[in-house]
Every structure is written in C-alpha cells, then in structure tokens.
Design brief:
RNaseH-like_sf, ten-stranded mixed β-sheet, IS701 family transposase, IS701-like_DDE_dom, IS701-like, single chain, two-stranded antiparallel sheet, 15 helices, alpha+beta
Length: about 400
C-alpha cells in the first residue's frame, strides 16, 4: 500500500483500497463489492462501489506503481515479458467488450470479454503487471453502446498484438528490467510486433503455427515440413523448467535463419519442440541481438507457462473474473487492484525461497491463505458479521416491498 497510496489523495480512499485488496486476498466464496465490503466491516457496499465506479483516481498510474514495485522486488536483467490473453465468460450484451468470440479459456466460441495481459517473470518469481481490454469492432462502431459503457472517445480498434505492443512499450519505457518477450501463436504470427521488439533490442521466443513459412537456405518452407526433414541427431532432450512432478522434458531442435536477417542485425532461429510421449510438435520464431545457446531459448519458451499459473491464481484466488461491473473505468479499476494483490503475493513469496526439512518454499496460494488467517481474519469482529446479516435482510425487505408495489400498479 505504500507503493500505490500516493495515487489516492485523501486518507479515506487509501484505507478503502487497503480493505478492498484485503478482501481480494480473503477466501470469500465470491468476490464483488458487496462481499468485500462485508469482509471489511463496512455498513454497506456503497463505499466499495464508489471506489470502483466514481472516486477520483487513475488506474493506469496505479499499475505504473505496481510495475515499479515488481521491478524493485523481482527485477532481473534477464527478465521475461509474457503476453497472453484470457477470457471472462459473461451473460448479456451490456458489459464492456462482451460479444460472442473465441475464448482460449473456454476452448470455444462463447459470450465473453477478452483482455490482453502482460506478466513479468524472473528467477525471483512471476506476476501480472499490466492489462488492456480488447474491444471488438462491433463495439468500436456503435457510439451508443460505447457511451453507455463509458468507453473514452480516444479508444479506437486495436488488434491483440497491437495491444500487446503498447503494454510492452509502456513496461520498457517505465524502466522494467527485461531481455526477452514470449507469447503464443496469436502474437508470433504478427510480423509488426516482432519487428517492434527487434527495434527495441528485445529478444523474443514467439510461438507460430505449423503452417508458418520461414526463409531457409533451400528456399521458403513450412515449419512442419522442416520438422519432418530433420534427422534424429538434430533433436536434444532438454528440460523447459521445473514442474510440480519433475522436469518438463521435451525434445528440442533449432535451425539458424540467416536469410531472415534485416536492419536490426541480430540472429534469427526457428525453434522446434516435440512431446516425447505423443510426438506433438510446437514451433517458435526466435530472435536475439546476441548469439545464445539452445538451452537459453528453451528456458525462455518454458517461462511462458508461468502466465497461465498467474491467470489461475488471479481467477481462483483473487476474483479476477468475478467482477460485476459493466463500464470501462470500473472494469479497469477492478482488474488493476487484482493485479496489485497478485504482485504483493508474488513479491512476498519471493522473500522465502528456501525451507528447512522436507518442505517446499511457500507458494503464492499458500501465502494468501496464511496472510488471511494470521493477519486479516484475526482483526475481524463478531459484530461485523451480525451487522451485515441485518443489513442484507433489511435490503431484501426493501426490495420485496418495491417489487410488490410495482406489481400492484400493473395487476388488478
């Protein structure tokens, strides 16, 4: 809270933000302004709703403070910026950015929001640091819908790779120490993003499709055809990182792409990964301003999976996708405070990297449980629980009276 408190001009919103983040860290069945306000001991949800919807503060500035916080505690010269998107399933058509579109989270076309996230990974840990909401063209071209959701006039259509580029530019301009960028096929297939990364001298390991074509000494070829023509001696067994059940071993190969050289004067490779059990293949376009060995590229490719761990922790433990806000500003504020909570956990977990005996180091999820049980829950009062039971029943009674009165106007 010391890192972001200056963004809130008065002590009341600073305390409310602290209580809001504490509510996100709590094991509530669902997380929304009602449940978080009850957890904080407020006498109603109005204060939390005001913080998310109406109070005066800039969510972009808070995310900048979170980025600086992460740089100070997890920063490393070989840090990796990870880009990926996640979908939040929603009902109706009024929530900002929602439409029927493909969601990798659901694995099919669903009514959902999509957001591009930027995560930071280093030897000390990994955490989410920034986000950009994807607005489909159907929203961009509908002024009435935009106005109802509070979308700023300055927001135009941008593809997911364009949003990712903006997030990366912001992180680099903010001084976040990093050397690499990793992402999936949605970003590896965009040549403009790759060129922008080379221009910033950022190495990258970006996944591409099996149909992706690369220039080789024998002409332009598909990546899957290159894999089929490789001799057995070209493959090496290398771990992509430590997993909960052991090393993540795959067969790897890479070939140099000298014909892909451009004005950036770096080194291009095609990296290939083969599952040792199923034989399934994956492909990556790689670039670095300096020569690096194969195992270094493999390590960067393996880092990409950490953003999936961040998504899981933020959704299951911090309520990233449980918001009930339809408007642009409220969505960004909710997501920003979830990012802040996740960064706190990642930084705190990074301070305890060794354990005695046969214990593993404290994980983000375990730290969240300990922090709530030992710090947050210990400060709550029985009176708060009773007061909220009375508040809910009074609110429900008022709503019931209003429903019956409205019905009496229509019915004989």
């Amino acid at each position: 809270m010391d890192a972001v408190g200056a963004r809130f001009g008065r002590p009341e919103p600073r305390r409310r933000v602290r209580d809001f983040v504490a509510g996100l860290l709590a094991p509530l069945p669902t997380k929304n302004c009602w449940t978080i306000a009850e957890h904080a001991g407020d006498d109603g949800p109005g204060g939390m709703q005001d913080l998310i919807g109406r109070a005066s503060w800039d969510d972009a500035e808070v995310r900048a403070d979170v980025r600086d916080f992460v740089a100070a505690r997890l920063g490393h010269p070989d840090g990796v910026l990870l880009i990926d998107e996640t979908g939040d399933l929603k009902k109706g058509v009024h929530t900002v950015g929602v439409q029927r579109q493909y969601s990798g989270t659901a694995g099919k076309i669903e009514n959902c929001q999509l957001a591009v996230h930027l995560s930071y990974a280093s030897p000390a840990g990994h955490t989410l640091i920034d986000v950009a909401l994807y607005l489909p063209k159907s929203w961009i071209e509908d002024p009435m819908r935009r106005a109802e959701a509070g979308v700023p006039d300055s927001v135009g259509f941008a593809t997911k790779p364009q949003l990712a580029r903006r997030l990366i530019d912001t992180a680099v301009a903010g001084g976040l120490p990093c050397r690499w960028v990793a992402g999936d096929e949605a970003y590896g297939g965009d040549p403009h993003l790759a060129a922008a990364l080379r221009d910033q001298r950022l190495g990258y390991v970006l996944a591409v499709a099996c149909s992706h074509r690369v220039p080789t000494g024998l002409g332009v070829a598909r990546t899957d055809q290159i894999a089929a023509d490789l001799p057995p001696r070209a493959w090496q067994r290398i771990s992509a990182g430590n997993g909960a059940k052991g090393h993540r071993y795959y067969d790897w190969a890479f070939i140099t792409l000298p014909l892909a050289a451009d004005q950036h004067h770096g080194h291009h490779w095609l990296l290939l990964r083969r599952n040792r059990t199923t034989g399934e293949l994956a492909f990556y376009r790689c670039w670095s301003p300096d020569l690096v060995p194969l195992h270094h590229l493999v390590a960067v490719a393996g880092r990409r999976w950490s953003i999936e761990e961040s998504f899981q922790a933020a959704k299951t433990g911090l309520g990233l996708d449980q918001h009930q806000h339809r408007r642009w500003q409220a969505w960004h504020r909710w997501t920003t405070l979830v990012i802040a909570a996740h960064a706190f956990l990642a930084a705190a977990a990074a301070t305890n990297t060794t354990s005695s005996g046969n214990l593993i180091p404290i994980t983000v999820n375990e730290l969240r449980r300990l922090f709530h049980a030992l710090v947050i829950e210990a400060a709550r009062r029985v009176a708060d629980v009773i007061a909220w039971s009375i508040f809910r029943r009074r609110h429900q009674a008022t709503a019931k009276t209003s429903h019956y009165a409205r019905q009496a106007l229509r019915e004989p």
